[in-house]
Write a structure and sequence with these properties.
The chain has two helices and 39 strands. The longest helix is centred in the middle third of the chain and has 10 residues.
Length: about 450
Amino acid sequence: EQEWCTGLVYQYTFPGRISQVGLRNFQISADFDDYASNLGAGRAIQFDKCENCWAGGILINHFYNGFNLGNNAKWITVEDSEYVNNTGTNAGPDAFATQGGLNLFLRCGSTPDCTLYHVGGTQAATPGPDVLLDINSLGQAYDCEAHQRWAAGLLYDRTTVASSNGGNTGIKFQNRGGAGSGQGYACGYSVMWNCDSKGSINQIPRVPYHYNWAIGRGSSAATWNHYADDGIFDATNVLVNPHSLYLEQLKERLGGAAVENIGYTLFTISNSPPSQSAAIGTNALYTVSVGDPAGMGNIVALSVASLPPGATAGFSPSSVTGAGTSVLAVTPSSSTPPGVYTLDVIGACAGLSRTNTVSLQVAKPYITRISVSGSTLTITATNGPLSQRCVLLASTNVALPLAQWKPVLTNQFDAFGNLNLSNNIILPNIPWEFYILSQ
């Protein structure tokens, strides 16, 4: 955009760059210490001159440096890997480093036995964007930082640096000045999002159109060091929603399936109780619980399928944001046949749906008591449709079709589904009479 800068754009090719190469589920260990130089075994794993590659389930044991993604590496994912029992402290060993762009470190960490200068970060002129999501370092780490001059587009998302010796560790977008090789301002256009570290730093040079942000924090233990050239701080005393900026942007760009493809559950749904019974005109109530394991703050829309004929249903509320509950009320009507039904309770969000089932038994009215006092017959019934009419039919011949039975009493079920029919209907010259309830 010429409003901001001048330049040219070229299409390029990269002959020889490889792709679709992965490392999965193994341990790489070194049995070497160079105590004289305090270096130890060098770097365990290097990706460079490659794209669309991955590593996962890797344990790096007793190395000086862990992973490095070189400046010709892009679209690389390193996930669920751990750096343990490192060697050396000279010149700042790091566990997870990137010099390229469009790379992702996901659910990686180091153990309390590690003495690190840098948990994870960038090197000189790293183009980005690069993401470190759910990185958890528990060793005696110095920092997790953009390390050398002028990296761009770095996101630390829900990253924790907690020193096992109680030191003032932190995530740092820092003016490193003359440190090391004269590293100066380490990064721009970078974000810390809901990170949980003590002594974090967010500095930015005072030049136009250049920003670093620190937004949210994971716990009250997170603290900040402030300087005259501070970047932008926003809501740094609270855990902001969504809990993960990367996962939210991924969901908005590619849908909920993309979030689940990298190992997160977008939402869960369950019901209680699993079964209910209801009479005609009464409500069967179920509590629908929606879980939010990734802290996404999703809006999950609720619906129900496979309702019995004539039944109606409604949710209160009709959707759940984040984790919460809704009450499902299912109401059989007078046209709903008695029986047992399986209902599908559905939650939908970002192109994903989940279904849980509940059972509903629709019962018909039945007689609970018959009594005779002199010539008065009293019949009590229950489980009837509220305020609906009920007729007592009588016949001296039980084999007659129901249409030929004689209506002898009419009444309505009350607000509790109960009914009483009482009348002087027994005649002395009739040896027996049969009765049935009809709506």
